[in-house]
Amino acid sequence: MKLSVFNPNLDQIRDVAEPEQSKVALLDMQDIARSELARRRRRLGNLTPDQELAVETLLISTIDRISELITALKLLDTAS
Fold it and tell me: How far is the C-alpha of 22 from the C-alpha of 52, rounded, in Å?
């Protein structure tokens, strides 16, 4: 089975400067992740509702963490 890499449009995220815009960008990333999960859901085979919830929770927490890292990098970049 070939795995694909989820690659959000990071250019949009880099351009975000205000906290409110960061929240919007994060919500956009979460929406993209959910739509990709829905699109590729069949590849995961039969999952219980609890397993589906666990996969989505893992996906969203990963997106949140990536967003936090990007924000931290931006803060470091502006501090330099």
Answer: 27
What's the pLDDT tens digit per position in 20-36? Answer: 667 788 889 999 999 99
Helical residues (DSSP H) of 1-80, grouped into ranges: 10-14, 19-40, 49-79
Instruction: Work out the pLDDT band at 4, boundaries 50, 70, 90.
Output: very low
* CA neighbor of 10 nearest in space, from 71, 60, 54, 57: 71
| Per-residue pLDDT reduced to its tens digit, 43-56 | 999 999 999 999 99
What residues contact 13, with CB distance under 8 A and at least 6 apart?
Answer: 25, 29, 67, 70
